[in-house]
Design goal:
The chain has nine helices and 14 strands. The protein is of the alpha/beta class and 305 residues long. The chain has two domains: 9-235, Spore Coat Polysaccharide Biosynthesis Protein SpsA, Chain A, CATH 3.90.550; 243-300, no CATH class. Strands 3, 4, 5, 6, 7, 8, 9, 12, 13 and 14 form a ten-stranded mixed β-sheet that branches.
Length: 305
């Protein structure tokens, strides 16, 4: 299947002229935001609107955007929105302007993209409008090295498999994509109809790390999840601290690993991810128990006294 497929009309809805609303939550890290917005200015696709939600930055991020990127719709928070609240503020703002055939691109500010990025996503959306389309993540210091090519999960055993990590992007042709179990906030195009059908991100239970929950709920509602290897986002992997990807831990990390707001393995997040996405009570219990065993093994097997 080609990325720029033939004109597609799904269920009588024409998505050829769909507008893309690019929603970006930010907090400080002004240099990342500026670099991302400059990437957006170079896009070959023109029918898009950027919405930045600045949740109380103190480094001049909002001032920089207001002065140098007047095309951006800038919204503000008081510092208590976190990722999930901020992304929902941006999506609600987009929904006030969006048509039923439009789409929202959820993306973080610490990424950079090539000029054809939005054009590729829009082309894919034309050919598969009942799909949430994720991006392949590469290392910005080695853009041919895949960091995350999508994740597949066994929903009974909670086994996670990251596809094609450390493989070469050049080994895959431009039409290559994979079906996945969930998508992250690092570049995912979501049809407006998804939010109309299942609601927004779950900010009640996920202050951070709520990005993977909504795509699974969408999949359970009949939408497809893919990662396109033509839609590439470049991540500052070495410059980003991630407690869940450390090579080793001491016991002093135990509290932050299992309870910190920014940890993907926060026990509260794992419970509600299992609860929100389970097909039935058996799947919920099995997944949650196995998932806790999985993340516990990940931590304790790396503890160095």
């Amino acid at each position: 299947m080609g990325i720029m497929g033939a004109r597609y009309i799904a269920e009588g809805v024409n998505v050829m002229k769909a507008k893309v609303f690019v929603v970006v939550p930010v907090f400080n890290r002004r240099h990342y935001t500026e670099a991302f917005l400059r990437c957006m200015r170079k896009q070959t696709f023109e029918n898009f609107q950027i919405i930045v939600v600045d949740d109380g930055s103190t480094d001049g991020t909002s001032e920089m955007i207001s002065q140098h990127f007047k095309e951006v719709q800038l919204l503000g928070g008081n510092g208590n929105l976190w990722w999930t609240g901020a992304i929902n503020v941006g999506i609600r703002h987009a929904m006030l302007q969006a048509a039923e055939t439009d789409a929202v691109l959820v993306i973080n500010n610490d990424l950079e993209v090539d000029p054809d990025y939005l054009e590729i996503l829009h082309g894919l959306y034309q050919s598969m409008p009942k799909t949430l389309i994720g991006s392949v993540v590469v290392d910005i210091d080695n853009t041919n090295c895949i960091d995350n090519g999508g994740v597949v999960i066994n929903w009974l055993t909670a086994k996670h498999r990251v596809l094609n990590r450390n493989k070469y992007l050049s080994d895959f042709n431009e039409n290559y994509y994979v079906d996945v179990s969930y998508l992250t906030g690092r570049g995912v195009l979501i049809p407006v109809q998804v939010f109309q059908a299942i609601g927004l991100y779950d900010e009640k239970h996920f202050q951070q790390c709520g990005d993977i929950d909504l795509p699974v709920r969408a999949k359970n509602a009949g939408y497809r999840l893919i990662v396109s290897y033509a839609a590439v986002v470049k991540s500052h992997i070495k410059g980003t601290y991630d407690i869940n990807r450390l090579e080793s831990y001491s016991l002093k990390y135990l509290k932050s690993y299992f309870f910190d707001i920014k940890s993907n393995f926060r026990l509260k997040y794992r419970f509600f991810f299992a609860y929100n996405t389970a097909r039935n009570p058996i799947y919920f219990i099995s997944f949650f128990v196995c998932d806790i065993l999985r993340i516990s093994y990940h931590f304790f097997s790396r503890v160095r006294l």
